[in-house]
Amino acid sequence: SNRIPHTRAGPSLLLRFKFLLLLQKPYPPRIAGRRSSTPRKSSTVEGYSRQRASGGTVGEEVGFGAGMEAQATATVKEALAALYHHPDDTIRTAADRWLQKFQHTLDAWQVADSLLHDESSNLETLMFCSQTLRSKVQRDFEELPSEAFRPLQDSLYGLLKKFNKGPPKVRTQICIAIAALAVHVPVEDWGGGGIVNWLGDEMKSQQEFIPSFLELLIILPQETSSYKIAARPERRNQFENDLCSSANVALSLLTACLGFDELKEQVLEGFASWLRFCHGITAATLASHPLVHTALSSLNTDQFLEAAVNVTSELIHFTVSRDSCGITEQFPLIQILIPHVMGLKEQLKDSSKDEEDVKAIARLFADMGDSYVDLIATGSGDAMQIVNALLEVTSHSEFDISSMTFNFWHHLKRNLTGRDSYTSCGSEVPIEAERNRRMQLFRPPFEVLVSLVSSRVEYPEDFHTFSEEDRRDFRYARYAVSDVLLDATDVLGGDSTLKILFMKLIQACGSGAEQNQNWQPLEAALFCIQAIAKSVSIEEKEILPQVMPLLPRFPHQEQLLQTVCSTIGAFSKWIDAAPAELPILPPLVDILNKGMSTSEDTAAAASVAFKYICEDCRGKFSGSLDGLFQIYHVAISGVGGYKVSSEDSLHLVEALSVVITTLPQDHARRALELICMPIINSLQEIIQQGESALQQVPARHLTVHIDRLSTIFSNVKLPEVVAEAVNRYWPTLKIIFDHRAWDTRTMESLCRSCKFAV
């Protein structure tokens, strides 16, 4: 229920007890089973004609007596009054729960119908009852006997006319209920021509109710995909087919409503809804249709822009839908759509334009790009104009708007680089020639794209005030930009993309970033560079030899330092392949050291980078073991200022393990003992406290050390050395096995360690 603030005192305090009792006694269902074509025996159900003539209602069709109805109606009114107006939260909550249970009862049919027809019902009652009746038709229609359809149809039809002038929300619920009813029953129940033809007859004979009829016409196609309607699959499919066969009638009715200026927006909304069911109408027919002309001419009006954009978007989707007859047959419609959309390009830069209108226009350009990407990829003059327009959208200052084009750039990249796009060229030589032509043609747009999106990842000045949700959205935006940059590398090449981003880095270095005055552009450029690291050749000799010496000079601002550490890890393979005359590794390790002592986030990035550096540059660390062991012991011990979490410490354990593998066996044996002893000593300290202490210690205090052993055993690839260590430390592990057999978490950790040892 939509709650309305209370404005007057509610029912008496006695309701507190009444509702609490009612909650314990939910309405029992009075009719079980599914809807059957065989009439149920009921003293109140003796034929549709006689009942309606005597003033019968929907409720009487399912066996309600007048006294029962009056009692239920009075209780519902009291519950609604308590829900909306009682000052006691307990009473309001109890009333709300009771009303929700009531909506699932058989009584709800009659009570909702009766109160909707009651002229004295207030807005709160009308809203609740219209929602109740709508949900009953959607999900509980099979509760009713087959002969209840006519009274229900007549009642809903009467309500549709009654609420012709509002309240709008109530009228909408009635329309949804009628649409759900149409999904449930076969076309013959509407007079043979289906609900659309029935609706057309009513619109012609009772024009004063056209607003209600038009809303129903709009809602009908929208409700076909609603799975709130508990219809059987075969019936739902048949209803969709019925709507497809009635599409021409629906468009005729919508066209007729264009004569009412006040209904123009609703007509456009209805046209957008029905386009999904216009499979039998050709593109040539639509190209000259009055509704299409009205929609396209409305693109330049502020009043109808959103509705016109929705129609145009649906028309674009229509031309490339799986039911269309091929792109060539759609050209008559495409040729009028594209110029009208392109005519909106200048409005993207209009600062006086409402932001929601700009979003609508941007969405239209994005839809056009996604839908016609195969045509755009051919590189014709008109196609390049569309590409330039999409670059305008990408350049918009609002990320929500610029990001609408990201899917287009991805699809364009796939089209340009995928072999399937060139099969029409024939043999290998023409295919390669055409591919090279297109790749060269689209290089400039993708170069501009890289420059545009790289600025999207800058940290805002007020980032420290962001909520967790805002921070999560910002991280998502950075990941999305990373994906776009990787798409660009597939067209431009990683090294060429790196050159563009390096220019951004140089510009940032000249803007006071090194004095920590304006670090955001510097961090943004560096983030983009590390995002494309896998696409950059390890033989790159022009840009990276200039980037790496800059890293130690950057200020140790937290976010910037985190990105610097990630960049070091991302380019670990290049660092290993770098010329020997470039002594870049020691200062980079110093940066990682600093990262591990700055914050938890920088420590996490530094630990991962340290692992990659040791994996890829392991041969360069053989003479620096003392320094590595010092870093390891400080991180494992938790003293010395490092802020490495226990989870991140596993990266350091793995880092040393892979370095140990490169050592001669004697040195490796000693090195392995050095990294295992802090772990074994910690476990022995717990064991020495006695059996009782070992039984009571939290599992986490044991598994944090055992998991480090697992990492060592799995990454030191020297079987004899590992075997000796396992035999040496087995007594300690055996004690834990014996005294913590009941502890699943510890047992899993121990068994994993033994698995890697074996």
Automatic annotation (TrEMBL):
One of its GO terms (biological process) is protein import into nucleus. Its main location: nucleus. Keywords: Nucleus, Transport. The keyword Membrane does not apply. It holds the Pfam family IBN_N. Belongs to the importin beta family. Residues 167-311 form the Exportin-1/Importin-beta-like domain. Residues 35-54 have a biased composition (Polar residues). InterPro entries: ARM-like, ARM-type_fold, Exportin-1/Importin-b-like, Importin-beta_N, Importin_beta-like_NTR, TPR_TNPO3_IPO13_2nd. Residues 95-147 form the Importin N-terminal domain. The keyword Nucleus applies. This is Exportin-1/Importin-beta-like domain-containing protein. Residues 31-56 are annotated as: Disordered.
